[in-house]
Amino acid sequence: MSEPENLDPYHAFVASMRAAWSQEERPLQAHLDVTYRCDLNCKHCYLDNRTSWPEMTTNEWLNVLDQLHQAGVMFLTWSGGDVFMRRDFGTLLDRASELGLMSRVKTHGAHITDEWAQRMVKDKVGRVDVSVYSLNPEIHDRLTQVAGSQAATLRGIAAARRAGLRVKVSFYVQPETIGEIAALYAHFSALGCRVSFNTNTVLDHSATENLVHLRLGDDDLVRARAEILRVEPQELPKRLDELPRHAPCAAGRTDLYIGPDGEVWPCISFPMALGNLRERPLLDIWRTSPARQALVAWDNNDRTTCHSCEGSRFCFFCPGDAYKATGDFRKAAPSFHATSRARMRAWEIVHGPTFTDDAWASVPDESGRAPATKRFVFPIHRAKRSEGKRVTGGK
C-alpha cells in the first residue's frame, strides 16, 4: 500500500526523498546480502543453499559500494546468511561509512561483541536488527537447531545496547509462541529495543513447498494478529480507494536488492532478475532493465479489483509475494485475501463488530480453493551444489 498519511517528521522526510529519487531514476536504498552462509540452521529459513552460493570478492563489493554511492543510494541494509561469516565485513562497513552511506545491520546477533558494537557505532550504523524466536531458550534453540543460540543472541543484543546502538528485535511467531507476544514485547521494550512481529513464512529459494507447513493456520493467524493489536494499538486503516494511488511499495522504484553473486532484484522478497553486477554496471541495470521498466509502469491505480475491497485496509499488496505465487507481480495471490480476512477477524476480536456483511463479501474467500497444479519456479541464478556454478532456475 502507499505511505500512510500523517507521517512523523523522519518518515515524511524519507517519503519526500523517495519521490525525488524516483523522478531522477535513481535508487535510494539497497539491501545487500553479502553471503548466504550462516552458522545457524533455522527451520524456517528461505535460503536452501547456505554453503556453495557464489560470492563476490572484497574488491568487487568495494566497487559495488562505489557504484551505489555514485548512483545516489543513501541507505544500506547489510544481511545474509549472517554478515559476520565474511571476514571482510568490517572492511566493507568501513568503506560504506567513508562514503557517507547510512547502514543497518541484520544478524542473529551472536557475533556482536563489545568491540564489534563499538566499531558499528564508529561506522555510523543506524540500527541492528536481530531475530528472537522465544523467551524460552529451548523453543528458540529448537527453531535455530543450534544449542545455546538464544543465549548468544541475547549477549549480542546486550552488547549492542551497551554501545548505544539502536536495536530492533524481530519475532517470528509460531503457534507455540503466540502466547508470548505480550511478554516478549514488554521484555525487549523495557531494554530500549523496538519490537516487530512476523506472522509470514517465506517460500524457499528453490520455490518448493518445503516450508509451507510452518505457516500459521487461519485460526492461529487470527489469534496472533489479535495479540499484536493488543500490544500495538492502531487506528482502523483506510481502504485502498481512500488512499492516494501511488506505488504499492518501493521495490524496484527506489529500493533494490543485491545478492552474494551480484544478482540484482527489486527487493529480497521479489526474485525478479534485473541484471548482474559482474556483467553490467548498476545504473545501466537500473535504467534499462525491461523487467524493472514494466514494474515502475504499474501502480495502485491499476489494481482496479482491489479498490473497493474492505480487506485492502489490512492487505500489504506485496508484488514480490504475488510474483512468487502467481508468476505475475500484478496478480494477487489467494493468500493475500486469506491474510486480509484473518486480520479483519482479529480486528473484530479486539474492537468488536466493525464490518458489515457487504464489507465481508467484498473480500474473496479462497480458503477452500485447491492449490495450483503448476508450481512457479523462481527465475534466479542458483548455485549447483557439486560444481558451484550459477545456473538459471529453481532446480
- What is the helix/strand order? HEHEHEHEHHEHEHEEEHHHHHEE
Described by the principal axes of the CA atoms, the overall outline is globular
Strand content: 5-15%
For the biggest β-sheet, the strand order reads 6-5-4-3-2-1-7-8-9
Largest sheet: 9 strands, mixed
Give the total of beta strands: 11
Low-confidence blocks of residues:
1-5, 368-376, 382-395
Whole-Å distance between the termini? 33 Å
DSSP summary: helix tally: 13
Main traits of this protein?
395 residues, alpha/beta, nine-stranded mixed beta sheet, two-stranded antiparallel ribbon, 35% helix, 12% strand, globular, disordered N terminus, disordered C terminus
Describe the structure.
The structure is a single chain. This protein has 395 residues and is an alpha/beta fold. The chain is built from 13 helices and 11 strands. It has helices spanning 9-23, 58-71, 89-98, 114-122, 137-144, 149-162, 181-190, 218-231, 282-288, 290-296, 319-326, 334-351, 357-361, and strands at residues 29-33, 75-79, 102-107, 125-131, 167-172, 194-198, 255-258, 263-265, 275-276, 381-383, 390-392. The strands form 2 sheets. The chain has a 9-stranded mixed sheet with strand order 6-5-4-3-2-1-7-8-9, covered by helices on one side. A two-stranded antiparallel ribbon has the order 10-11. Helix 8 crosses helix 12. It is globular, with a radius of gyration of 21 Å. The two termini are 33 Å apart. Residues 1-5, 368-376 and 382-395 have low confidence and may be disordered.
